[in-house]
Specification:
Four copies of one chain form a homotetramer. Chain A is of the alpha/beta class. In chain A, 52% of the residues lie in helices and 11% in strands. Chain A has one domain: Glucose-6-phosphate isomerase like protein, domain 1 (Rossmann fold, 3-Layer(aba) Sandwich). Chain A has a five-stranded parallel beta sheet with strand order 2-1-3-4-5, with helices on both faces. In chain A, helix 1 packs across helix 7.
Chain lengths: 207, 207, 207, 207
């Protein structure tokens, strides 16, 4: 297989991902976004903590979001890291799971509810166990791990027949772009600039 | 500020990110991609390890890539995790840094060269310390932490005046989409399906 | 408070910890240890994976053990790290929890049982949910998070009245010393030397 | 090999570790400890951050310490975790390395000095690159990775001929016990009880 064909497939896959992600982020509900932003801003104003949780690649998307919230001086932590303190009443747990069924994320969300924290679910499935447990849901579509051959959501939408990015890729990239856009909005609302963020940026950046 | 304007800004930022990322991934050099794929496939065939490194959000992008390589039965590790073994001769270090100057990533790349491993740099700056140290460079453009007001690369390209996503966001999302597309290509080349990958997917997914 | 008294307290606390740990590791049951070693060796011989899990500081103790198992060429992973693959039938999950009640560890152990993996619990409480779920238990005493004023185990044993190390410290250090000793035993059984281990030791050691 | 001999070796190794650790912690210099405590308390009083760094198992010892500092309401972070902010002037970097030569730890210590932070090195080798770079050194002996056959420190002291715990084990356990004892001292100095610490203890404890 020559360079040409290689390039073709990688290029096509990039275009497919961008297309699927574009379609999915278009479908995000503005009211759901606004309420989410309100909850974040309120937590910050009241000195409450925000904890972020997700499994696998969704967890990495959550961490990238948490890092930016830290740059914006939110009191934010990632569940499972060393210095993450107790989740307390009125704190906010942001739980990311495409399927909404990831056992340990759902378990964590239920613990959060017990201590009186608020749970925001970012999921493709608002009626999933995670969605039902949450105080607020932001629906981000994507193909999730639940997808079966016939109902690959993004494939139907796009009418593509080629294998798109595997497993939860589309959900993860769409969520990632959505949360990065939210950061732009939060910067504006909080009157913070990139310079402010840079000052908070880790100076020892280990891998 | 009402819901309408909130929605407007988040929507605009999502569109901006998608646009900047689309422009940047279009510019990725096919020959650079092909050589990178070849190095990965060869390492897998010869039972060599692939180690992934990056600082901050670039490190998270690297981890997401490493997870997929694991799903494709590569012998892959993330530098800094518990069971990451010694990097040895002919192993491949994939080092991700937009600026190509992140001290600890450059330090790691130099250690890799000393032990006879091959270094692939994914960076916006091929002439950076990381780029110069690497055996192979894949250039992915983006605004990096080095960007100054006047020369925000993606802003020039896009002619936008609004604040785009801050800091390294565009590089990170572009690299993320590029590496996810590479996974599609690797699936094809290796004859592996999503079903094969699902079988390797963590069954205990902790946050 | 002068240097003398400071020194006194730190010195006293070190001695207390050493004493409590010594008492607790003396009480570890040889048959439980032998069976544990047998399960590890058998997994290694049959090419099965070992996954290690623990929350908080118990998780750190587990990671330190996993790192040494890697140096001894076990196929070992830490639950929650990037490239940790699916737990499969006949794999071994080593679950560390002083109280044996940590929700997410118990949840993980139950998932492990479902897929046909074997669960080894290292806990102070063999009749805890974790202990009951496990195929094999190694009891390591300590004060655990469950301890109440009256029944601080190590205090009774030692007849001390001063505050010993807080929370799960004694369990964690005792487990840590036990697992490090197990590594010495495994080296002998496998005929591996320190030199062999050094060769596997990470050459890029990021923080 | 029967259960008896197995037990013998594990038991012997546990006793050896405890003995070597006891000898080493006895030799810790009280003045070095007192100055370290003073630096931590002062940072806490002045609202300065403490960052902890270490590679491999020393990094895990550092994390265990950081977790307890968090329980005592220190503003503490682990270098390399998601929400670790910039190290700034007058912050304290606690760098743990038995050999004092671990490249990335030394690199980080030098970055810390550049931004005006204070560096505390916990090492067996005060004249190592890390020791020389530090503002303050606490010497904790152990066999380190640098040890060669003839000069195994703890072996000489103890007159043992059997293989003790491999690589940096003794340094790691000794440092771990030392830092846990320091926590007892800090509790006393700060007037904080175990109950206070429990309230800060993570309620969602993921692996």
């Amino acid at each position: 297989m020559g360079a040409a064909s290689l390039v073709e497939l990688t290029k096509k896959a990039m275009a497919d991902i961008i297309k699927a992600v574009s379609v999915n982020i278009e479908r995000i509900n503005p009211q759901q976004v606004e309420k989410f932003i309100g909850m974040l801003i309120e937590a910050r104003r009241n000195g409450r903590k925000i904890l972020v949780i997700g499994a696998g690649r969704s967890g990495l998307v959550g961490r990238a979001f948490a890092m930016r919230l830290m740059h914006l001086s939110f009191h934010v932590h990632v569940v499972g890291e060393t210095i993450t303190p107790a989740l307390e009443k009125d704190d906010v747990l942001v739980a990311i799971s495409g399927s909404g069924t990831t056992t340990l994320v759902v378990t964590a969300a239920r613990i959060a509810k017990k201590v009186g924290a608020k749970v925001v679910a970012i999921t493709s499935h608002p009626r999933s166990p995670l969605g039902k447990c949450a105080d607020h849901v932001v629906v981000v579509y994507g193909r999730t791990k639940l997808a079966k051959k016939r109902d690959y959501f993004s494939r139907q939408i796009l009418g593509v027949h080629e294998p798109l990015a595997p497993l939860g890729t589309i959900f993860e990239v769409a969520t990632s772009v959505f949360l990065d856009a939210l950061i732009v909005e939060l910067m504006r609302k909080l009157g913070l600039t990139e310079k402010d963020m840079r000052a908070r940026h880790a100076t020892i950046e280990p891998p």
